[in-house]
Amino acid sequence: MSYSALIVGATGIVGQNLAARLVADGWVVHGLARRPRQAGRGAIPIAADLLDAEGLRTALAGIRPSHIYFCSWMRMATEAENCRVNGAMVRNVFAALPAPGLIRHAALTTGLKHYLGPFEAYAQGGGVQTPFREDMPRLPIANFYYDQEDALFEAASRHGFSWSVHRPSTIIGHAVGNAMNMGSTLAVYASLCRETGRPFVFPGSPNQWHGLTDVTDARQLARHLHWAGTTAAAQNQDFNIVNGDVFRWKWLWPDLATWFGIEAAPYPEAALSLDEMLAEDSRLWTTMAARHGLAEPDIHRVASAWHTDADLGRPVECVTDMSKSRRAGFTDYQYTPDSFFDLFARLRSERLIP
Question: How far apart are alpha carbons 313 and 318 in whole angstroms?
Fold first, then answer.
């Protein structure tokens, strides 16, 4: 059976890795983004703004995909605006496609904010319980993930295709210019510490340092998305997706330091702000880029410290249950240290870090 995919947000950390996975499996892949030059090797680029309904309709006029993958979001000033804008982006895509009745499956990637709440109320209120399970009810607060889900469910009901929702933890993977990229951010931080002799101190909360947590390799997520789109048991289901192991930062952090040839500093037993620590380093990174012949002199293209602060600053440990996927047949596993080390090696090989 032949498949064709439209990846919405093809230049992001999810979209790029998904495109590579589908192209390798012989799919015809269209990569939609505002600037789709980095949509992934083998993907057919489509340039459009998801909030420009007419422009989107023109861009998608000749596209009749069997599968749609939503891997995009836009950060706004308030959660109310997040809901309005990100829900509209999903609805606009379905409205713009010339033959939505030909869609077989559509998948939406969200994340643990489904359980933790949006950034402006992130993990607050003391009601967070782990492990996160798909049968937990929605939180009684505004959350743009819920608006995106509702837009997906409505379109699926109207046009008769199956759907899946995928909830990764913090995603570790390769994508330059991505707004949510802890792996690259920590690589930049470690490189700066090695260059300047600063202490490589864990900037997160005591709960994260001492407690259990998990992450999602972008390659693992791509495999999960591919599986759900072609497996009957995964139709019309929401799934958590993580690597399949758990770890504590207090034992992983020294291993990250060793990879960069530096020592891990003692943990101060209090959260710091990596965003503040890197705030004045734009010029230093530009200088380092020139000295080491790096491909990207703009630190903001390779690091997103604000988002890493949110993930590492969680006031609770984060453990995500994968039983639902396992019982439905998805058994892939990814060793978490290798998620980081593979990424670091690729960043170095592409001259993105020294």
Answer: 11
Alpha helix ranges (H) inside 197-333: 206-210, 218-229, 249-259, 274-277, 282-292, 299-302, 305-312, 323-328
CA dihedral 35, 37, 38, 42 (to 10 degrees): 130
pTM of the full predicted structure? 0.95
The answer as to CATH 3.40.390.10 being correct for domain 4-168 is: no
Q: Is 172 helix (H, G, I), strand (E, B) or coil?
A: strand
Contact indicator for 6, 65 with CB cutoff of 8 Å: yes
13-17, 128-132, 195-199, 268-272: least confidently modelled range: 128-132
Q: In the block, which residue shows the tokens 């001259």?
A: 351
Q: Is the peptide bond before 131 cis (omega within 30 degrees of 0)?
A: yes
Residue positions annotated with a catalytic role: 113, 145
Who contacts 80 (Cβ-Cβ below 8 Å, separation ≥6)? 142
pLDDT of residue 40: 63
Beta bridge partners of 336: none
pLDDT tens per residue, range 204-231: 999 999 999 999 999 999 999 999 999 9
pLDDT at 126: 57
Opening angle at CA 176, ends 52 and 39, nearest 5:
50
- Count other C-beta atoms under 10 Å from residue 135's C-beta: 7
- Segment (H or E) for 166: strand 162-168
Distance CA 226, CA 138 (A): 26
CATH 3.40.50.720 given to domain 173-214+246-320+334-350:
yes
Residue 116 one-letter amino acid: L
What are the residue boundaries of the structural domains of the chain, listed by start? 4-168, 173-214+246-320+334-350
The residue type at 76? M
Q: What is the average pLDDT across 113-140?
A: 83
Same fold, 4-168 and 173-214+246-320+334-350: yes
Q: Are 79 and 142 in contact (CB under 8 A)?
A: yes
Q: DSSP 3-state assignment of 96?
A: helix
Give the type of residue at 325: S
CB 20 within 8 Å of CB 40? yes
CA distance 89 to 73: 8
Q: Are 107 and 69 in contact (CB under 8 A)?
A: yes
